[in-house]
Amino acid sequence: MIEPTSPLQLPDYRRFWLSRFLASFATSGMVVVIGYQLYDVARSQYGMSIGQASFQLGLFGFAQFLPMLLFTPLSGLVADRFERRRVAALAMTIDFCIALALAIATSHAWISLPLLFVLGAFHGTARVFFGPALSAIPPNIVPSAMLPRAIAFNSLAWQIATTFGPVAAGFLFAAHPSAPYWLGAALLAVSIVAILLVRPVPPPPGNRDIHPVRQIIDGFAYVRHERFLLGCVTLDLFAVLLGGATALLPVYARDILHVGPEGLGPMRAAPALGAAAVAMVLSFRPFAHNVGVKMLWGVGIYGAATLIFGISTYYPLSLAMLALLGAGDMVSVFIRNSLVQLNTPDAMRGRVQSISGLAISASNELGEMQSGLAAALIGATGAVVFGGASAIVITILWAWLFPELKNARTFAPQQPAKEPFA
Predict the structure, then answer these.
(1) What CA dihedral angle connects 114, 63, 266 and 104, to 10 degrees?
(2) What is the pLDDT of residue 298?
(3) How far apart are CA 314 and CA 47, in angstroms?
(4) What residues contact residue 179 under an 8 Å CB cut-off, 6+ apart?
(5) How many whole angstroms separate alpha carbon 269 and alpha carbon 255?
(6) Using CA of residue 279, residue 280, residue 281, residue 285, what is the dihedral sign?
(7) Fewer C-beta neighbours within 10 Å, C or N terminus of the chain?
(8) What's the whole-model pTM score?
(9) 3-state class (DSSP) for residue 407
(10) Which residues are within 8 A (CB) of 209 and not within 5 positions of it... i.e. 6 or more apart?
(11) What whole-number distance in Å separates Cα of residue 84 and Cα of residue 78?
C-alpha cells in the first residue's frame, strides 16, 4: 500500500476541506451583504450621517463579538467533550437558518436595523462553537507530519472562499438583493452533509472524568502559563484589533472611493485574494526555517499595507494594498496556526482553539467596534491610518516582550507537550 504524501489524498480530509470551503464561501458572502445593507439602511431609512452609520457598523461588530465573549469557555469545553463533527454541523445549521431568514426578510422588504443586529448576534453564536470544533478535527484525521500542509490547505480553502464569496455576493445582491442569501443557504446545506461524512472524531479519552468547570479553568491556565502560545495568540489579538480596516470598507465603497456595492465585493475579496496566493504557495512549499521571524514580518507588512490603504483615494491602489495586507496576514496566520496546533496536546486542543478563536474574534469584531468609533471621532481615513500604524508598533513591541516568537526556528514543538492539568 502506497503511503499518502498529501492531505488531499485522504478521503476524510477532502470531505473536511469541502465542508470548510462551502461554509466559508456562504458566510463570507453573507457578511459582506449584511454590512452593506446595514450601512445603507442606516443612511437611507434612518437618515443617519456618515459618522453615525459608520458607528452602526462598529456596533454590529460588537453584536457578533458578544456571544464569542460569553460562550468561548463553553465552546472549547464542548469541542473537547463531544464529537467534534456534530458540534460543527450544529453550528452550521444555525447559519443555515440565518441565511433563510435573511433571504425571506430581504425578499419581502422586512430588513431593519434590529433584525440585522439580532441575526448578527446569532451568527456570532454559531461561529463561537463552529471554530474550535472544526479546527480541532485535522490533527485527528491527518498524520502530524502532514499537518502544516493541511493547515495551508485549510487556509487556502478559506481564502479562496472569501475571495470569490464576497464578489459573488456583491454581484448577486446588485442583481437581486435576496439572491446571495438563497445561495448561502444551499451551500451551507451541502457543507453540513460533507462534514458529517467525515469519520467520527471521538472526544479525547479522560476529558469526561474531569469536572467541566475545572476543564475550562485548565484551558485558560494552560495558555497563560505557556508563554509561546500566549505570545502567538495575543499578537493577532492586538495587531488586528487596532489595525483592522474591513469594517469601514462600506464607507470607502460608498462615500470615499464611490464604487458602490459592485466595488465593495472586490474590495472585500482583495485581502483574501492576496492571502490565497500565499496559501497556494505554502500548501506546496511550506515554511521550514526561521518561522517566528517570518510571522512577525507578516504582521508588520499587514500594518504597513493598512496604513497606505487608509490614505489612498485611487481604487486600483486601494485594491492592491488590500491584497498585500491579506498576503501579510496569511503568512502570520499560517505560521501561528501551525505552531499552536503542534504545541498543544489533543486533550487540550478544543479549549486552546476556543481561546485562540476568542482572540481572533475579539480582534475582528471588537476591531470593527474600535474602527467604527474611531471613524465617528476622527473620520474613516484617520481611523484606518491610526490602525495600520498601531499594528506596526504592536509587532515591534511583541518581538521584544515575547522573544520566544522570534526565536522559533521550525514548527517542531518548542518544548515537550505537557499533559493536561489534573
Answers:
(1) -40
(2) 87
(3) 28
(4) 172, 173
(5) 19
(6) positive
(7) N
(8) 0.66
(9) coil
(10) none
(11) 8
* Largest distance between two CA atoms of the chain: 68
Single-letter amino acid, residue 243: G
Strand stretches in 93-189, DSSP E: none
- CA 149, 151, 157 angle in degrees (round to 5)? 105
CA 73-78-79 angle, 5° bins: 100
Question: CB neighbours (10 Å) of residue 176?
Answer: 11
The tens digit of pLDDT for each residue in 20-73 reads: 999 999 998 888 888 888 888 888 888 888 878 878 887 887 787 788 777 877
Q: Which of 122-126, 269-273, 311-315, 408-412 has the lowest mean pLDDT?
A: 408-412
pLDDT tops 50 at residue 410: yes
Residue located via cell numbers 479562496: 160
Separation CA 259–CA 315 (nearest Å): 8
3-state helix, strand, coil in the chain (%, to 5): 85, 0, 15
C-alpha cell at 366: 471588537
Task: Specify the amino acid at residue 63.
Answer: A
Question: What does the block give as the cell for 139?
Answer: 490533527
Please give the distance of CA 330 from its chain centroid, rounded to a whole number. 11
Residue 259 CB coordination number (10 Å)? 17
Distance, CA of 16 to CA of 22 (rounded, Å): 10
C-alpha torsion 189→190→194→196, nearest 10: 20
DSSP at 363: I
- Of 134, 127, 123, the closest CA to residue 196 belongs to 134
Ordered by where they begin, the domains of the chain are: 9-200+208-406 (1.20.1250.20)
Q: How far is CA 151 from CA 124, 270, 337, 386, in A?
A: 23, 21, 7, 32
User: Are 282 and 334 in contact, with CB atoms under 8 Å apart?
Assistant: yes
Between 188 and 167, the higher pLDDT residue: 188
d(CA 294, CA 333): 11
Cell of 280: 497556494
Contact present, 324 and 191 (Cβ < 8 Å):
no
The rounded Cα 171 to chain-centroid distance in angstroms is 23
In whole angstroms, give the CA distance from residue 315 to residue 64. Answer: 29
Q: Which residues contact 7 (CB under 8 A, 6 or more apart)?
A: 13, 17, 138, 142, 146, 149, 150, 153
Determine the straight-line distance between the first and last CA of the chain, rounded to whole angstroms. 41
Cell triple for residue 218? 485548565
Cβ neighbour number for residue 197 with a 10 Å cutoff: 15
